[in-house]
Design a protein that fits this description.
- The chain is mainly alpha-helical and about 230 residues long.
- The protein has 2 domains: about 15-65, Orthogonal Bundle (Arc Repressor Mutant, subunit A), CATH 1.10.10; about 75-215, Orthogonal Bundle (Tetracycline Repressor, domain 2).
- It contains 10 helices and no strands.
- The termini are far apart.
Length: about 230
């Protein structure tokens, strides 16, 4: 398998070059981890496989396990890209509109359209399974989820509008991020998990999102939990 590329929203050239370098290093790390295991791989070997100097490796990553962080983040990035691309309507997302929007875009982000490659999901499964058995790599997985939550927060704030309750928007970002994490961990642990339909990442993530959000309705004026 070749480690995948995450979606790339339009960014300045220098930033895109840095993102490309980070991803090349992440791919090299994932390939070596698959071949030799994290413990059997060195930062020097990752840098060499990626075609960069060791000092360049450490400019982007703190250690060898940290290097696969960009691959852990692909699913969340795909979701944020879709949410960010939602055309603004006449007003903020309100009432049931926001949960429906989150579910639809999440399902799209974690789905594999017919005729497209599922490599990124296969790599995600392998990396998550490995992380659940490797405490140091698991720490990277959890850190990436925390960062994803922080990056999702302004996106949800923009969707719900300036009058939305900040606490509820923040809670929605945390719940949404945990829904993706729990879904991917559940899917990764299954034997021969499906890529589509019941038990797939998209189906599990939407189910988790509904269960975790419960009666929460983060919206302008209607963002009160109901009992």
């Amino acid at each position: 398998m070749t480690p995948p590329s995450p979606p790339s929203p339009r960014r300045p050239l220098t930033e895109r070059r840095k993102a490309t370098t980070r991803l090349e290093i992440a791919r090299a790390a994932a390939e070596l981890f698959a071949e030799r295991g994290p413990d059997g791989t060195t930062a020097e070997e990752i840098a060499d496989r990626a075609g960069v100097a060791l000092r360049t490796f450490y400019r982007y990553f703190r250690n060898k396990r940290d290097a696969v962080g960009p691959l852990f983040a692909i699913g969340a990035e795909r979701w944020r890209v879709r949410l960010t691309a939602v055309a603004p309507g006449p007003g903020p997302a309100t009432g049931p509109e926001l949960p429906e929007l989150l579910e639809r875009t999440l399902a799209e982000a974690l789905s594999v359209p017919p005729g497209t490659s599922a490599e990124w999901l296969r790599w995600t499964r392998w990396l998550v399974r490995t992380a659940l058995r490797d405490p140091a790599l698991r720490a990277v997985w959890y850190r990436v989820n925390q960062e994803s939550e922080e990056q999702l927060l302004p996106v949800l704030a923009a969707l719900t509008g300036p009058d939305a309750e900040p606490l509820e928007v923040r809670l929605a970002a945390a719940v949404a991020t945990d829904a993706v994490r729990i879904a991917l961990e559940t899917w990764a642990e299954a034997d021969a998990p499906p890529l589509a339909g019941p038990g797939s990442p998209s189906e599990l993530a939407v189910r988790c999102l509904r269960e975790l959000m419960g009666g929460m309705r983060p919206s302008t004026g209607a963002g009160r939990a109901t009992g």
